[in-house]
Design brief:
Blueprint (H helix, E strand, L loop, with lengths): L5 E5 L3 H12 L3 E5 L7 H6 L1 E5 L6 E4 L2 E3 L2 H6 L3 E4 L6 H8 L8 E4 L6 H11 L7 E5 L4 E7 L2 E7 L3 E6 L4 H8 L6 E3 L3 H6 L3 H4 L1 H6 L1 H7 L12 H20 L7 H9 L6 H6 L16 H4 L1 H15 L5 H14 L3 H4 L3 H4 L6 H10 L4
Parallel strand pairs: 1-2, 1-6, 2-5, 3-10, 6-7, 7-8, 11-12
Antiparallel strand pairs: 3-4, 8-11, 9-10
Helix pairs in contact: 4-5, 11-15, 15-16
């Protein structure tokens, strides 16, 4: 008989509410943490969240605890589901570091690129004396939205989501711990692989910025992945994708191309990325962001593109196109995303050779 874990969910946004309610409806004991209590006050009063999930598990998910005290959450749970923007991962790691135990399993949903590495390095810098398992999902398992103070909706649940632990030799433990709740998670290799298979890095930032005029003129009133993906825009996305795959190859990894991912996830094919994206019927009807002040830029640039470029520069891969998109994001937002982003220095791997880096993500040990 498998062990029953208590789940602690960190974050009460679009994903966190759905995650907490879904786990509770599965019969799991669930605690919810949000650093701003006023954002979860109604959930605390009702002691749960209503979940709309047509064709699936839905209803009222009763929670064991709703708190703005991370120490209380960690003391009462074993599996920690971090469901926040990746820009918050460093702060969460710093806040959690005094209270994490060896038996804790932390899962970033998702890690973007370098999430688990950043989390582990932040724990080290903050003097964390324990060794919890830090892991990350390649993408978020739900397409979900928050539709009220204590109401969430799940539109779709992905059938297969790669996940990897740091170190990779403990991934099996993580998968076993969450299997009764999420059999959809599969072994993603290691955290370099999950991070470099980050398709959002390819499909989001450049597409938003290359359509900046249209987004500002129409407030996003056009189909993002259809009208926004012209042949010329698709060529830029193809180069970003090629650079990402080449960085992975330099690290000894075989990353999926954007074309392969579209076929795997949506059975969408074509002669090139332009055709494949237009043949993905699920993209039709999805509007563009209403503003350029959007996570496709302020999250994806520093947490996805910067670490890919940083790995490329360190290990001798030309990433000119990715660097150009990063610079464009810096200009549009008047922000230094290189300084804010996940560079290899911040990930704590700047001085590692490829062999040493691989050894670290596989075993957790540094030569």
């Amino acid at each position: 008989m498998s062990k029953e874990y208590v789940f602690g969910v960190i974050g009460a946004g679009n994903g966190g509410k759905a995650m907490a309610a879904y786990l509770a409806l599965l019969g799991k004991k669930v605690l919810l943490y949000n650093r701003t209590f006023s954002n979860v006050e109604v959930i605390a009063e009702r002691q749960g969240i209503d979940l709309i999930n047509p064709g699936g598990l839905e209803g009222f998910g009763k929670l064991e605890m709703v708190t703005d005290n991370i120490e209380d959450l960690l003391a009462a749970s074993q599996v920690i589901m971090v469901v926040t923007p990746s820009t918050a991962h460093r702060d969460i790691a710093a806040a959690a570091s005094p209270y994490l135990r060896d038996d804790h399993i932390v899962i970033l949903h998702p890690g973007r690129t370098g999430g688990a590495l950043e989390f582990a390095e932040t724990l080290r810098q903050n003097g964390c004396a324990t060794k919890p398992i830090i892991s990350e999902a390649e993408t978020f398992i739900f397409a979900s939205r928050s539709e009220g103070p204590s109401l969430a909706r799940i539109f779709r649940i992905k059938e297969s989501v790669p996940l990897a632990a740091l170190p990779a030799n403990r991934t099996k433990e993580v998968l076993e711990a969450i299997h009764t709740a999420f059999p959809q998670f599969i072994n993603g290799g290691n955290v370099l692989m999950t991070g470099l298979n980050n398709m959002g890095a390819v499909f989001h930032p450049a597409l938003a910025m290359l359509n900046s005029g249209w987004i500002e003129a129409t407030h996003g009133n056009f189909e993002f992945y259809v009208d926004g993906v012209t042949p010329s825009v698709a060529k830029v996305l193809e180069v970003i994708d090629r650079e990402r795959v080449t960085v992975a190859s330099a690290l000894g990894l075989r990353a999926r191309t954007g074309m392969e991912w579209l076929e795997l996830a949506y059975n969408a094919t074509g002669e090139n990325l332009y055709e494949a994206m237009h043949n993905q019927t699920g993209y039709y009807g999805i509007k563009a962001p209403p503003t350029l002040n959007h996570r496709y830029i302020f999250e994806e640039v520093p947490m996805s593109l910067v670490p890919i470029a940083s790995f490329g520069e360190r290990y001798g891969v030309s990433v000119n196109c990715i660097e150009s998109i990063i610079r464009l994001g810096c200009i549009l937002h008047n922000t230094d995303y290189w300084r804010k982003g996940r560079t290899i220095e911040k990930l704590g791997v700047k001085d590692l050779s490829i062999g040493e880096l691989t050894h670290y993500v596989e075993t957790g040990e540094r030569d």
